[in-house]
Amino acid sequence: MSTDITTNTKPIYTDIDNLVKQIHLYNKQNNQRFVIAVTGGGISCLSLLFGQPGASSSILECTVPYACESTLEYTGMKEIKSWSSGPTATLLADGAFSRCNKLIEASKSNYTPIAIGATGNLVSGENLKKGVQGIYVACKTNKKTYEVHLILHKGEKGLDGEKDKHFRTRQEEDDLCGKLIVCVCACECGLLNPNELGNFMNLNGMDSRDALYMYYTGKPSLETK
């Protein structure tokens, strides 16, 4: 079963740029470092994270293994059955976590490693896609691994020969998915908690027809709509 986290808990930070600044400040003061691997969607998180000063205090590396061959190499897999899925996001997070530890070891520092893996399936073409559209974001630390799944409202199917009506453009979808990745980073800095995550996304472009889920060890434990 899942717990609805559509609450009235208002996050302390409501602006994405200010949230990024606080992420960088927290990581500088607390010696946390991220490695992020993103494919298929949410790539706008890179411009958000690097668009504010202090990114070197947060980010060790960001990778976009976009082609199928690149994703296979990054995850160490010979085959992936579902490219946009929670298990694939977790595989990306596993690869990012290994990379994060290697970079920390090479720097001879005592940073705490945090890895983010994300894989999306966004709008493309004139017709609505079949199946679920959105992004899976996995986070791996020394203590836990969890996934956040954003399901995007696609739009309306055209009737009587009319074209399908997309709810968002691809750029708009990518922007929203990028914000979710930033939010997961913020959760690992204690700047957002699950009760605030949904409300922050609502304030930053998520619609009531979208859905947001959080999973621990593969089981849905938190939900917002």
Overall description:
- The strands form two sheets. The protein has an eight-stranded mixed beta sheet with strand order 1-10-9-6-5-4-2-3. Strands 7-8 form a two-stranded antiparallel sheet.
- The chain has helices at 16-30, 44-50, 68-75, 86-107, 170-187, 194-203; strands spanning 3-4, 32-39, 59-63, 112-121, 134-140, 145-151, 155-156, 165-166, 211-216, 219-224.
- The chain is an alpha/beta fold.
- The protein is 36% helix and 24% strand.
- The protein has a single domain (3-224), classed as Maf protein, CATH 3.90.950.20.
Summary, kept brief:
This protein is an alpha/beta fold. The protein has six helices and ten strands. The protein is globular.
Shape type: globular
CATH class: Alpha Beta
Task: Describe the sheet with the most strands.
Answer: 8 strands, mixed
Q: Strands of the largest sheet, in order across it?
A: 1-10-9-6-5-4-2-3
Which ranges are low-confidence, i.e. pLDDT below 50, for 5 or more consecutive residues?
Answer: 1-8, 218-225
- CATH fold call: Maf protein
Number of helices: 6
- Portion in helices: 25-40%
Strand content: 15-25%
Mean pLDDT: 90
Structural class by secondary-structure content: alpha/beta
Sequence of secondary-structure elements: EHEHEHHEEEEEHHEE
DSSP summary, beta strand count? 10
CATH structural architecture: Alpha-Beta Complex
Radius of gyration, in angstroms, nearest whole number: 17 Å
Distance between the termini: 15 Å
CATH fourth-tier homologous superfamily? CinA-like
Number of domains: 1
